[in-house]
Amino acid sequence: MHKLGIAITGSGSALPETSLDNEALTELVETSDDWITTRTGIRQRRLAHPGESLSQLAAAASKQAIASAGITAADLDLILLATSTPDDLFGSACQIQAELGATKAVAFDLTAACSGFVFGLVTAAQYIRTGVYQNVLLVGADILSRWVDWQDRRTCVLFGDGAGAVVLQSNESDRLLGFTLKSDGTQNHYLNLAYKGSSRELISDVNISQGTYQPITMNGKEVYRFAVQRVPEVIDKALFQANLSIEQIDWLLLHQANQRILDAVAQRLNIPKHKVISNLAHYGNTSAASIPIALDEAVRQGKIQPNDIIAASGFGAGLTWGAAIFQWGR
């Protein structure tokens, strides 16, 4: 009989070595360290060099997560890669599978932008709760520097590259206590990494479009407004589902987009500052990687302890948003 609960048993993260601080950004665009820090809380970000692939970063984070879960790659049944920036448009999860030697695992990509990790967590849980798979590797990884317009000072100051991973395993008690996922495509235009093609006539009367993706565009004001309003709601709903009060939360783990969003959400939920996990000063917004990187750091620093209750929430392009309430460890 399979155990139908889930536990998050290991974490890992990997970041490029190259760092770009706010001072260095002033050489690219008209901005200042003070302007960026006061508006976003970001002081520096890590950038993947041309030889560095998403699969490499993801595999490095995955190896740590697998080791800390006390299993081997051969034990994995499923690899889920949450990313918007694969090395290959057909998907990069299979490359991670090969790199890890996870011969038994089925692997595929999942795209939900900055909500990707939370959406992936809930997706992975369904496979375990139905008894289909026992060991799942969930990776959140993005190399947004590939798709940033480095002349656009509204966006280029925000983003960074990285990868984070967790292992989910079947468990006697279910440690995913509640979740809520949401989408609203009517607001899609506020945050895009859009395809743009030009018309090409193949033969008479047969036209197709060919082109590539364009740099990230964002309406910062609207995305901020959306996050501050929707994220507290969705955390409340997930807490209600988990039958928990806000006071029972040990840690608030939000997608690391902007310190002002983190502060505003915590304030609306009446969560004290010392319970808010934040590392965006060092890494900026790493999209699907931000929650698992912050989680892994807090675990390795000894902040997050076994049985701690974490309220995690991702939000971003789509627009998508969601929250998951889980207990760390078995």
UniProtKB/TrEMBL annotation:
**Gene of this entry:** fabH
Question: Cell division as a keyword?
Answer: no
Molecular function via GO: 3-oxoacyl-[acyl-carrier-protein] synthase activity; beta-ketoacyl-acyl-carrier-protein synthase III activity
Q: Where is the Beta-ketoacyl-[acyl-carrier-protein] synthase III C-terminal domain?
A: 240-328
What's this protein's family per the entry?
Answer: Belongs to the thiolase-like superfamily. FabH family.
Q: What is its EC number?
A: 2.3.1.180
User: What are the record keywords, sorted?
Assistant: Acyltransferase, Cytoplasm, Fatty acid biosynthesis, Fatty acid metabolism, Lipid biosynthesis, Lipid metabolism, Multifunctional enzyme, Transferase
Q: Where is the active site?
A: C114, H255, N285
Instruction: Specify the protein name.
Output: Beta-ketoacyl-[acyl-carrier-protein] synthase III
